[in-house]
């Protein structure tokens, strides 16, 4: 129950398991705390919560509802993209939807928040409809347009996507009717809020033709740091897991005289001369000061940070959003994607090393990073988010 007379903001994190989702919510909580609001984070009890290094801006953490996760989905659900993600957590079964939404409504009734803030939190969004104002934040991938889940991929829609989305919409609205909640016009409505804010840069957003008013820029304040010369010989690697591509590429880097510092959150990497295993990930300012390049899996936060600081990126994406982000980075000449076929070819390896050591590339990345930092500064994400809270709270009765 609420223990304070101050207005409460309830933060909801459901889908996804990376640090990026919690980092975005934690940044919003920082703004809320400055306004004197109580900040409460709800996460699944089966989710391992990694507190971010640095400041933690939530007053407390409570348990959010559980939902199923299909590990071996039938062929009908293997269509890729957001439709499949939602289907695999129960959005094809009106009974599951109804049950989880009812649990969220119990939580909302108990804590009586003035606003709910979600990051990739579709069940919580359904529970809040016409009950509590909802701010949905996230990457461009997790915040589609109202027109549909796959508005970013209208040319190459996976087979079966439209049918799956239609089935989910029927299931959602059946559950909404049972709970006496308003129906949706599109499944995408579950991933959008009364306010929808994309914490990204337009260049890394897979959704075309998005309104510029939805961009707040990355929820990060990037301090000014002095970049090293491009040939400093240090590489930082951040991986969720290690596969054969990673082992081969890291071996090649150290064989060519580069010193690698590696953090891996869930995997095994045998000791390797020239490679140092880290117990915790490095923060962006430290990375910018020491790294000639960063080897990573295409997460939006690290991708954006490297772009801001002009750090070359070696990319090995392992899921849909990371592949989209990586494709954009390669297109902009901010990174190079690697794979077994590339690494098996001597020319591919030599081209990668030549790219890392090209002064013209370093100059371009530095110039692009400066322009990007100026754009982010002009967006002023803290003022943007704080303005949403202040405008809404000013309408409440004393």
Overview of the structural elements:
By secondary structure, the chain is of the alpha/beta class. The chain contains 13 helices and 12 strands. The protein has helices at 19-34, 81-87, 94-111, 122-128, 161-178, 244-255, 284-290, 300-309, 320-331, 340-344, 346-356, 359-379, 381-393; strands at 8-13, 38-43, 60-63, 115-119, 134-138, 195-198, 234-239, 259-264, 275-277, 293-296, 313-315, 335-337. Strands 3-2-1-4-5-6 form a 6-stranded parallel sheet, with helices on both faces. Helix 3 (94-111) crosses helix 4 (122-128). The radius of gyration is 22 Å and the shape is globular.
Largest sheet: 6 strands, parallel
Let me know the average pLDDT.
Answer: 86
Q: What percent of residues are in strands? A: 5-15%
Let me know the number of strands: 12
Question: What is the succession of H and E elements?
Answer: EHEEHHEHEHEEHEEHEHEHEHHHH
Please bin the fraction of helical residues: 25-40%
| Rg, alpha carbons | 22 Å
How many DSSP helices? 13
Q: Give the end-to-end Cα distance, rounded to a whole number of Å.
A: 21 Å
Tell me the structural class. Answer: alpha/beta
Largest beta sheet: strand ordering: 3-2-1-4-5-6
* Multimerization status: single chain
> Which spans of ≥5 residues are poorly predicted at pLDDT below 50?
153-157
Outline: globular
């Amino acid at each position: 129950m609420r223990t304070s007379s101050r207005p409460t903001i309830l933060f909801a994190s459901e889908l996804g398991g990376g640090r990026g989702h919690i980092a975005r919510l934690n940044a919003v909580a920082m703004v809320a705390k400055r306004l004197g609001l109580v900040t409460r984070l709800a996460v699944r009890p089966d989710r391992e919560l990694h507190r971010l290094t640095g400041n933690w801006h939530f007053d407390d953490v409570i348990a959010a509802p559980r939902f199923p996760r299909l590990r071996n989905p039938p062929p009908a659900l293997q269509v890729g993209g957001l439709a499949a993600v939602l289907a695999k957590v129960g959005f094809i079964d009106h009974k599951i939807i109804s049950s989880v939404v009812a649990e969220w409504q119990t939580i909302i009734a108990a804590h009586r928040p003035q606003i709910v803030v979600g990051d990739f939190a579709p069940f919580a969004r359904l529970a809040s409809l016409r009950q509590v104002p909802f701010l949905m934040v996230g990457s461009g991938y997790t915040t589609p347009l109202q027109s549909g889940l796959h508005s970013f991929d209208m040319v190459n829609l996976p087979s079966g996507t439209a049918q799956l989305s239609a089935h989910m919409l029927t299931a959602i609205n059946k559950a909404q009717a049972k709970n006496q909640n308003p129906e949706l016009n599109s499944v995408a409505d579950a991933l959008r809020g009364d306010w929808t804010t994309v914490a990204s840069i337009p260049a890394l957003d897979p959704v075309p033709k998005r309104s510029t008013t939805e961009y707040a820029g990355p929820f990060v304040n990037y301090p000014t740091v002095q970049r090293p010369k491009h040939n400093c010989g240090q590489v930082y690697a951040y991986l969720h897991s290690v596969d054969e591509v990673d082992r081969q590429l890291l071996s090649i880097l150290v064989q060519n005289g580069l010193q690698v510092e590696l953090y891996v959150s869930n995997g095994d990497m045998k000791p390797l001369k020239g490679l140092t295993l880290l117990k915790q990930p490095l923060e962006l300012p430290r990375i910018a000061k020491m790294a000639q390049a960063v080897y990573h899996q295409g997460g939006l936060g690290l991708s954006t940070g490297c772009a801001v600081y002009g750090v070359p990126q070696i990319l090995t994406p392992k899921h849909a959003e990371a592949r989209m982000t990586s494709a954009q980075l390669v297109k902009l000449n901010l990174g190079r994607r690697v794979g077994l076929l590339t690494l098996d070819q001597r020319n591919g390896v030599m081209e990668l090393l030549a790219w890392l050591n090209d002064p013209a590339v370093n100059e371009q990345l530095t110039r692009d990073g400066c322009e990007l930092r100026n754009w982010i500064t002009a967006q002023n994400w803290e003022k943007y988010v704080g303005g949403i809270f202040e405008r809404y709270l000013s309408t409440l009765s004393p």
